[in-house]
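Chain X:
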Amino acid sequence: MKPRIPWRKRLLVRLLFTSVLIALCSVAATAWLAVTTTTSALEEEQGQDLAADNKILAELSGYAADHPDWSGVQHTVRALAAKTGRRIALTNADRTLIADSASHDTPLPPRSAATVDPLHTDTYTEFGAQLSGIDPRAVGPFRLTAAERTKMDLVAEKQKSCFDRFSAGISVQHTPSGRPYLVVEDGTDTSYYYKYGCGDLVMTGATGRNSTLDFPTSTETKALTALTGLARPCLQAKDMDLGGKLSLTYDTTGRNPVSGGFLITKKDVRRSMDQIAKNCVLDARRTQLGPYVAPAAELFLGIGDQTASRFDMSRANKAKIVGAAGLVLAVTVAVTAVVAMRLVRPLRALTAAAQQPPELHVRARVRTRDETGLLAEAFNDLTERRERLEEQRKAMVSDIAHELRSPLTNIRGWLEVTRDGLVDPDPALLGSLHEEALVLQRIIDDLQDLAAADAGTLRVHREPVRAADLVDQAAAAHRVAADAAGVTLLTDTDTDNAAWLHADPVRMRQALGNLVSNAIRHTPADGTVTLAARRDGGDVVLTVTDTGPGIAADDLPHVFERFWRAEKSRSRRTGGSGLGLPIVRHLLAAHDGTAEVRSEPGKGAEFTLRLPAAPAPADVS
């Protein structure tokens, strides 16, 4: 009787329970988050939009930078309030109202959001404001006259037309003071095109070619001179009488309108004095721009006049939430049930296949390509391997019986005829019986080695061994057998004898001997068997190559299987016991090495043994 799985432990039930729990938590969390977020977003202090606030502050700072007072700001305040949906109010430092988008009886928020002061700002992101704290839109006396703007616009358009002939991608932009300047889209310096005759050139020399647009106008020069005069009292007050002079330059792009420093002849005080000069110039700029900008004002922001209703938990809203939650739950349960059934079906097929008797070797019929399908494929592969191992086990028992029966039959037959007095026990008969006993001993020894390898008890006694010595010893041991078969046995080793192994010499001679005897057996007369040893990077490679008939491609994967022989005939004349090559593979594995074979029919075979190389002993020169 098949064991029944309790309902609480079934995969389908657990998946459904988990999905329902997750769906409940998700729906509850989503509903709570939606209600809380909607309510909080409408609160006065928590519902502010930072991007809109920065935009309001930047707009009002620009107005202050372009106007000497706040007299006309009411229209700008109302336009910004209508665009952003915020209540905007401006006051003096003593909270005297300047402008307000709300009605006059609306109280101000408890705290101001920011101070609008174009001469002391850190909210405007233009490069000039970041360096000086002054809004770059505050230009004051540096603003060009109409005539100067017209003249410079004509120069800029003329240069742009010339640059357009070279597909330079030039655009004309204007600074807050009204000065035009050229911008190349790919970042190339505009002076690069001057050599082609573009622009109104006013200077040519070693320093390059410059345009009219690169020099200040008379208005800008006059303002720059006045700024220099405003900065000198500050410099004198700070005892900067060191033989230097103040040098101011004008940035015609308007990003940092005034820059420069105090030129000092004494190098050890140059850095500190230059910073003092910059501070004095910055204070002078604020003094110069003061009459041209609006005074500092406090900015108050709040909720607009429009009324926003909160999300109330009325019966209708509760019903909507419950309905949405129920729909999500239903869809979740349905989808989970479908998915769970698809998951459980192949698992049941796997369980049914696994519960069949082992001798039937039943495969699981699963066609899915997910994790369950991969598990089914692994199960089917395991079943095939088990079936193959069972066939090999049966074949091995039959092969062992055959290998043991042949010499035992010979020994028994000769002993019986000798006992009956039909044959005298002469030396030739005793030698034959001894040879058959040796065959039995070799088979038993091979089986014992394989059993030890399977059990992980195959012992190796490692010591430094020269690879060339192993090759020479294996060749010497099989020289007589090779000569008897008419096969030439050759060796090929490194001349410097640099290939050393840390291995068991007895086991390695056994492995090489199995390969050499196998090669001699399959090589016809007048053929050649070559033993080679060489160093290959961090490995030592031993090869046994013959000129025999080779191995078919279909037989190569089975060469190292037990009791496998290319010739299916069980005649000992055409093959050994089928245990030599499996023993070679296990011996190499015990030495952390590998055994491989490469062959083509009619071109012989090459067996390769690859083992980790070892350093030569210290006592070897």
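Chain Y:
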Amino acid sequence: MKKTGGELLAEQLITEGVETVFGVPGIQLDHAVDGLAQNRESIDFISTRHEQGAAYMADGYARVADRPGVCMVVPGPGLLNAGAALSTAYATNSPVVCISGQIPSPAIGRGLGLLHEIQGQTDLLRSLTKWNGIAKSPEEIPGLVREAFKQVSSGRPRPVGLEIPPDVLQAKTTAGVVNPAGDNTSEIDVESVDRAVELLASAERPAIVAGGGVRDAASSAALQALAELLGAPVITTRNGKGAISDRHPLALSRLAGAEFLENADVVLAVGTRFITMTGQPVIRPGRHRLIAINADPADVRAPRQFDVAVIAKAEVALEAITNSLPQVKREAPVLDGCRKRERDALRGIAPQLEWLQAIRSAMPDDGIFIEELTQIGYAARLAFPVYQTGTYVTPGYQGTLGYGFPTGLGAAVGAEGRQVVSINGDGGFGWALQELSTAAKYNIRLVTVVFRNDAFGNVQRIQSEMFGRNIGVDLQNPDFVALAQQFGVAGERVTTPEGLGDAIRNARGTDAPVLIEVPFDDVPSPWKLLAEPSIG
């Protein structure tokens, strides 16, 4: 029996294990969305209020569900709207599959001014993804979808893009789905492992820096096993928070671990770009011997200068190194001084710490925390304890203000009952507050905290300190509690850290979205601490 390209697309997505697609329907996607409608018992379609919301939700879903997130958008303005989310997913190694419409095939590249046409859409998508393709016939759809999922799941996980014109989605074919093949990602260069083992075996003061490449329980367990064998402290980057539990005696934040890292003789960098916020290597070559483990060869190139680079996924490389080292555990260094220096430094942002401690104490260990670009979020990079991989979500180096709320919604869909808390400033929350409608419509169990000071607070502070005046930073806000309630989301207002903790605990007993507004006064800036050695 013949099927449309749209029907075949839906069936191939199901074959790939996709359970949820986030998107906005539109005329170029009619047959794609109808394919999903015919398979609604096997795959959900969550229709968002804006394409940026769809793509951010796919990103959030991918970060916590241990499978790729999928979004579907119309071409032109739809893809452009999704662009900020795709760039965020690219920066944070998030496996997002973006399916974009196109204009009719015969008109592509001709500049005829058709609906949603933009010149060079394929090039635009290429700049936001690690791989992209375009289907020229319905027969090509299954193979291209298979290749998209192969690419998004191999090497360094980053977004992929697939364009499908409307005539291809409408055309009929007798082609069938393509079954997924095995994963060949366990290959590793034995010589580089041997050289890494040689350096680590002779180290007297080893240290490990763990980034976002340590992204699941298996790689975390492998990291912990190697650290314990070496007696090496593990300093986690912002994207690497949770790579090792902050309760582990060898775990150090980047603030606590800065001095130890500087004095280490051998440093193993696992799954991190190893670049500071200014684009310089975290450690300059000299008295340190540097080893990299990274799935992406680009992340071990200049300006970094590693003595050894093991190109492999973190779990595979860590296990290979551990199994090749002498199986005698070394004595761990005393790290009390590192942690005391950290506590002393953090006293300067005590107000933020009170709010963060209230949030952390109210959440279970496996609860997922969505950081944002707000004063509480900046402090969280340094002072929010994380106990499991995949439970601390950031926008990475993109720093995309407003990503947090829609990303949190996607995370909540993929979290399978675990609590998800998204913290927001009132400025950033404005980027996607319309997705309160999506939260209510699909009963997405997200706790959304909005810290309100009626300003772009960080920009306001910078302007005042640099120029002694402000412009463009004041915000005209609604009553967020009343706004949430108008959308059908439960809302409340709290004024103390204790009240916030209680509200988050209470939300654990409900299966519905909750918004909590927190009036928030001016607080000390955490930026001086964030300017300390920063690991990418």
